[in-house]
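Section 3.1 - Work completed
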Amino acid sequence: MSAFMVETDTIDLIVSVLVEWRPKHGEVDQRLFTYGRGPLDPELAQYTTEHDGYHVTSLGGFLLADALGRELIDANVASLGARYSHSDGGADMIDAYAESYTWRKVLRDGVGVPRAMGAIQCYEYQACESGDWGGMFAHELSKAAMKRLVGMVSEGWDYSRTELADAYRAKLAAAK
C-alpha cells in the first residue's frame, strides 16, 4: 500500500483532540512527557524542558495549536521522504506544506470519538515510514491524542467480574 500526505482536516482533528477535547473523568494534563526525540518545531521546542533523560512539553492549548500541527505534518513528510525517493515525487511535492499550516478547530459534537480514533490510526500509518518513528515527538502526540479519546469513552479503569455480575443481577431483579 502506498503512503500519502493526510488531509489537513485530519491534522486539524488530531490537534483539536490534543488542545480542546476532554475526557469524561479527571483533569487534562497539558504536558506531554516523552523519552524519544524532542519536538522538531522551533516553537514547540521553546516549551520543552529536559529532566533526567525525558522531555516535558507544555502543549499550551490554543497557543501552540499551529505548532502541534506543523510537528505532525513534518513527520508525515519525513515518512513520505523515507518511503519514496525524491525522484519519485516523495517529499519534494510538499516541501513547504508545514510552514503554511494554520489550525482550524474541529468541534467535538461534529465528529464522534470512533471516527477520530480512525483518523489517528490513518495518520500513524502514513507517518510511520521513517526509521525513527518510534522515537519521534509526533508519534508521542498521536499516542497522547488516542489516550485522550480512550478517556472520553472509557467506562472505568480497573475491571472486576464481580462488578459485571452485580450489574447483571440488578438488571434481572428489575425485570421481575
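Second construct:
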Amino acid sequence: MSDEVLFKSAADALRFAFNFSHQQYDRPLMNRLADKRLGGGKGLVGPDGAGQAGMIQRRLEDLPNLHRAILFARFLPRTSPCACGSLCCSSQRKNLVWEEAASAIGAYATEAIPDGAGRYRLRTALVRRFYGAKDTQAKIADDVGVSLRTVQKESALVANWLRGTKASKSGPGVPGVDAVAMAAAAALMDEMGFLT
C-alpha cells in the first residue's frame, strides 16, 4: 500500500466500504491520470476498490457485535433497487442486513435500558427511526399498540442510550454506544493506515 491516505475520516471509509458497488468499472488510464493531475479521487474502483471495501469489512469483524450492528445500521443503505416490476415495492426492497442490524440493536437496547421487559418491538422501531427509517412516532405507537406518550418516553431513552448525554449540573456527560462504536471503528481504520 502506498503512503497516500485513502480516507479523510472513519465515516468516509465506512461509507465507502458499505456502499461500494460491485458494478463499478475501472476508468480508462487517461481519465485516471487527469484526475491525479487535478487532485481528484483515490482511484478506488474495480478490483482495487473491491479489495479495499473487503479489507475494511473484514476488520469490522474484530469489533463487538453491538458495535458492528451500529455501524451497519449507520452506513448500510436501508433499501436496494428492485427490478421485479411490481407496484408493491416501488422499485425498492428492504435491505435485510440493515433490518437485522436494527433488530440486534433493539435487542441490546431492551437489555441495556431499564424497564425493557416487553419493549423489544417498540425499542427496535425506535432504533430503526434513529437510523433513518421514516416512521413517525404516531405510526410506531399504532404498529406496536402503545400510547404516543409511551413512544415519546421510550424514544428519549433510546436516543440517550445511542447518542449519549451532555454534561450538566447533575453530572458528567456519558458517550452513547453509537459514538463508542464510531471511535472503535476509527481506531481500526487508523491502525490499517487508512486515515490521516
